[in-house]
Records
---
Amino acid sequence: MNQSSTIAAVSTPVAAGGLGVIRISGADAISIAAAVFRPVSEKNVTTMKGYTAAFGKVYDGDTPIDEAVLLIFRAPHSYTGEDVAELSCHGGVYLVDRALRAVIKAGAQPAAPGEFTKRAFLNGKLDLTEAEAVMNLISAQGEQGAAAALTALEGALSRKLREAAQVLIADAAYMAAWVDYPDDEIEELSQERLLADYRGVAETLENLLNNYEGGRALTQGVDTVIAGKPNVGKSTLMNCLSGFDRSIVTAAAGTTRDVVEDTVRLGKMVLRLADTAGIRRADNEAEQIGVEFALNRIDRAELVLAVFDGSQPLSEEDRGVIARCRGKRAIALVNKCDLPQRLERDALDGFFAVIPISAKNADGIQALSEAVLAVLGSDSVDTSAAMLANERQRAGCELALSCVKEAVDALQSGMTLDAVNVSTDAAVDALLTLTGERAGDAVIHEIFSKFCVGK
Ligand code: GDP
């Protein structure tokens, strides 16, 4: 679809609601709105100014469909940078769909996923990292995710990447001039000055990369498994964290056979929790499947909360859990700390942290929350500062960093400035692909196709 066509889509969820909004964007947006909408005041829609509204009815031909409010935005002062008309109808699924069909009949093309935001990008309203932030803002599950997305939408990451690119571009231009016009009295940049510039850029990129995992955990949530043999208090912990009875808690060993899942907030973190079937040596086949499943979940989880019964000495099954947690991000929770303690703590030395809790009395949850932030590296992440939001950004940043390091190596090993410049250009390319200034069509298509229709 070419960018000069006028597009339309329903921008609100397809469900019954207070309002259903149809967004129309493009050169013919306002004349198409005029074809389907008649203001009560009988004013002429095509001469309405930007940022004005009219109340009236939406028509399909001569048949009135719904009452609506029409909002007009004139280019370039709109989300997409084009003329935009928005019809706010009553939010019934049928009504909104029928109004959209009337708009399409009047000449609009159905919008592709993310096409409004793509047009905003192509018209210079947003860069690529800001467009990605729009998507993250929509899908944010909690305060941290929303705060980080808003920071990115305000351009914090773009500014950082552009500043880094500017430093490299200035040095590259200087080196190129010095190589091309050695006779002109261009003073050669001192090696120290160049190295200082490159190291500064490398440090910026390294900081972004180092905070990536911790930032992702904070903004996107973490796949977490509560593991442990039967009866140590996994279900009780799950219920304590999620605030209501989801898992069946009984005193008989082996009652939680299936996986119960829940998304909970623990302090600043969002945990996608799975309480697995108790890990124990199974006697029957069904239980065996549950146990296997539980062990596999430990392997796949990003975070393991391994629960032990502090009132009992460690058993063979506990030792199995400990072995399985080796090399994982795992925290040992010594539960039932309200009872006399008999567990050998030394055996838990390999865990990131060992925390006494009482799931039954909700004791020790604050300490657990702090340990979770620390094990995920999220304790030092500042959501009001620039951070990388997705795998594309991480990979691009890593590529830029490796090119900068190559340039540093070339400088230090006395290679020609031309050689240094090849790596420098590659680094600039990687940085400007991230912001979108040098991104190819395939990258742009890939990013916007993940959006929802109507955004
Ligand atoms: P699961 O099999 O690991 O899910 O264990 P449950 O959550 O079903 O708990 C097993 C038993 O331990 C139940 O009787 C719980 O009430 C008890 N329990 C769980 N947490 C605590 C605790 O912190 N202190 C005490 N005293 N008992 C607990």
Note: Residues 228, 230-236, 249-251, 256, 278, 335-336, 338-339, 358-360 surround guanosine-5'-diphosphate (CB under 6 Å).
---
Amino acid sequence: MTLGLYAGSFDPITKGHLDIVQRAASIAGKLVLAVFDTPSKGLLFSTNERLQLCQSAVAGMKNVEVAKFSGLLVEFARSINANFMIRGLRNITDLDYEVAMLMMNRKLNPRVDTIFLYTSQEYQSISSSLIKEVASFGGDITDLVTKDVAQALKSKLSAQAQ
Ligand code: COA
């Protein structure tokens, strides 16, 4: 069975990420959605919160599993025997950064390649930062995230405001 690995910070996971998850899950036998376990400095949600939000977002997808990882992504890929890694592209601007990561990852572990998948048009201009900013000013982000993420953003941002 081919094992795909889709990693990111997911702070928080958006419908843009989920669009990539669905596309990746349709080409991989099994997909691991891996949350980067990085010190929460600069991130809104803790690793466990990001993990839980990812788990609830993919709850209906049978061949998708959620995990967390720390350290080098290629080492995690090796530890789970991933056949390939997935990265989502939203626009041509993403490409420079993504190719730099691909080349570095390939140098570190030539046996695990990266596949790029292009996101749907409606999610081309969103990012987790933009969603957090809009939510912090009370803007409507309900089309762009799951209900659980919208609720978590509301609670987190109102707790921060106190
Ligand atoms: N839809 C919506 N937004 C998307 C998206 C999509 N399809 N694809 C990417 N994004 C956004 C994310 O929301 C995020 O936005 P933000 O910066 O505003 O938060 C941004 O694009 C990048 O996010 P993501 O794809 O999660 O990447 P990342 O930079 O947060 O994570 C890791 C990258 C974790 C995979 C990478 O840092 C890594 O591998 N780290 C481990 C250490 C390592 O191996 N380093 C060497 C790498 S060569």
Note: The mean pLDDT is 96.
